[in-house]
Amino acid sequence: MRLRIHNPTNHLTKQNRDYNVFWDDLTNELKKEHSVIENRHYDNAHFERFNVKFDSLNNQDGLLMMECEYLIENLDTNEFIIFSVSDDLTHCILDERSNPKLKKVFLSQFIDYKVKHHVNNYYDKYSPWIYFPSFNIDLDSYYQKRLTLTNFIDKLYFKGATNHRPILDFFDKDLITDNHSINTENYFDDLIKYSVGLSVAGVGELCYRDVEYMALGIPFIRYEFQTELLEPLIPNYHYISIPYDLSIPKHNDVHTDRLGLYKHSKIIESKFKEVVSNKEFLNFIGKNSRKYYEEFLSPKNRLKNTISLINKHL
User: Fold this and answer.
1) Is the pTM above the cut of 0.85?
2) 57-to-63, 64, 78, 97 alpha-carbon distances in Å
3) Residues 139-297, CATH architecture
């Protein structure tokens, strides 16, 4: 195939998130089998949207793209597909939904009822995809370090911004780590010492730390995911799950656990107390989540599986 790739990037975005590294890896892999033209460099990619224009767009004024989005155009058929790691639905995700040349949109943050509400009759074009860790670091080395440990600290582990996660203010400080900032290397050396991670939504429901927990084989606890991935995450198999409480407040029409109230934090604490001494169950969850990571989210297999999606739909 003759392909043209649209993905706003520059020297700063390449130092940003792991998915930026993935875009480079994916481009290089596509070049092995196809003739590829790149429309990728954009000086302002790290702080503003890139207006992409090509003939098969419905809107000839262009399509706004962010650095977390990657569009592949088939120059032989004029069809195109989109991959997005955006925390929310964007212009790039929605604006061309009625275009017959748009064959598929793959979303990292795929919440079924939200997608249906916004795309209506074009729902079949939208599919769950994968998610990524925060940075391009050697997570396997920390996984191997964790395998050498035999005793773990029985507290919920969470480090991250709290200003948009008010639920964290309600946790018993004896059951959860302090939230002081820590550099990346020390973070992972610290994290692997704990028995259970806490998962709370960021801007999107899926968070980088969720993938990092899985990569390290650390069981994590959270309210059941509303977000779907291409290969389903199974509650109480891949992670420790609490049934979603519909009294949790909403943001942009989506229940968002980071906005949870006192009672919602206590439900998580209760579940933690129930499972923390059950080492067999924690090992079961940790092994299953690590296996999921290896098969679907590790650098090698996320690339292989994404190439398969491209070959299938384009």
Assistant:
1) yes
2) 8, 12, 9, 10
3) 3-Layer(aba) Sandwich (3.40)
